[in-house]
Amino acid sequence: MLRSFQAVFGVAAMAFLLLPLVSILPLAFTSSIFLNYPIPSVSLRWFEMLAEADVWRMSIVNSLIIGLSATLLSVVIGTMAALGLHGARLPFPDLLRTIFLLPMVVPAVVLGVGLQISLVRLGLANSYLGVILAHTVLCVPFVIVSVSTALQGIDPRIGRAAASLGASPVTVFRRVTLPLALPGMVTGAVFSFATSLDEVVLTLFVAGPNQRTLARQMFSSIRENISPVVAAAAALLIVGTLLLAGLSVLLNRKKRKIGTAGAPE
Asked: Residue 114 pLDDT more than 60?
């Protein structure tokens, strides 16, 4: 009885979470100019508009440039921060960890206003570098969380064993710590890229007309005119996010297999 209730509750929860995503996908393939059901026929005209219209094509390219750059920066900064929090004997480590994670809990509007003021003073307002830095601030906490989790799973005896065999601290870090932390870094990179693709509020505050991302273009289009091209753009984001989530699951599964194989019997 309890298992049946758990199964029903699980299916209901999944339906509640997935219904908004499932309902928008078919509208991306409609031949109509309206977002309504039932769709008259299947068409790829709105995906063709995404590829041909300059404003949509530029927004997709901007999203890829800004997303990849912010992901690279956040992985470097987040990994260094996670290593520092893990290995060093710092005063008030929990307080420092909370400060690093603040961008995840601070309201995006507050963060956007602060970033706008800071970037204007630095002369980076309405620039690609400014938008990349703003997205990096939001993405770094995801890398810190994932890399810290990976570092906590590393047996410290492995590093001590390598050092006892003559490996220098740099060699231990390069040949032992970094490979074992790599799945956490990749997972953090996946979440960072997905977060950057979906970010609208910070982009509205710090980006100019030339840095218009796909999410911002969707937001602007909805305010002016609700068109199925927005559903096509949403379908691209959903498929891209699902692919990234699948990659993360595969990496975590591979990490668990390696850990199981390396565990002492």
From this structure: yes
141 closest CA partner among 96, 202, 198, 207: 96
Residues 6 or more apart whose Cβ sits within 8 Å of residue 222: 230
- Token pair, residue 192, equals 């960072």
- Which range has the worst mean pLDDT, 13-22, 68-77, 182-191, 256-265? 256-265
**Average pLDDT estimate for 178-199:** 86
Q: How many CB atoms lie within 10 A of CB 256?
A: 12
DSSP state of 127: S
CA distances from 98 to 90, 94, 133 (A): 14, 6, 20
- Displacement of CA 37 from its chain's centroid (Å): 32
Residue 42 three-state SS: strand
Question: Reduced to 3 DSSP states, what percent helix, strand and coil does the chain have, rounded to the nearest 5?
Answer: 80, 0, 20
- Neighbouring CB atoms inside 10 A of 87's CB total 13
In angstroms, the CA 125 to CA 188 distance is 27
Q: Is the whole model's pTM more than 0.85, yes or no?
A: no
Q: Calculate the dihedral angle through the C-alpha atoms of 24, 30, 33, 34, rounding to the nearest 10 degrees.
A: -40
**CA distances, 82 to each of 105, 149, 156, 199, 201 (Å):** 18, 9, 16, 24, 27
What does the angle CA 37 – CA 234 – CA 116 come to, to the nearest 5 degrees?
A: 135
Rounded to the nearest 5°, which phi and psi values hold at 124?
A: -110, 10
Per-residue pLDDT tens over the stretch 80-99: 998 888 876 777 778 888 88
